[in-house]
Design a protein that fits this description.
The protein is mainly α. It has two domains: 36 residues, no CATH class; 35 residues, no CATH class. The protein is 46% helix and 0% strand. It is elongated.
Length: 82
Amino acid sequence: MAKDHGKQIKDDEKYEALRGKGMSKEKAARISNTPDASKKGGEASNLESRTKSELLTEAKKIGITGRHNMKKEELIKAIRNH
């Protein structure tokens, strides 16, 4: 049975599994709180094919700071590693 992480974590089992795979607490919480996370997959476009503007929007959504000073390649790396 998964540990109860309180109201902030919607799916404790999924959170524990993601943490066990080495994900950060923030990323595991974000994924486990997405109600349809298991239904998604393979639908996102390749980051390299996105414009810098699209990457900036994505970086803003996930809270990457300093994004406006980054080159496209740096944005891609920051998004992937967040």
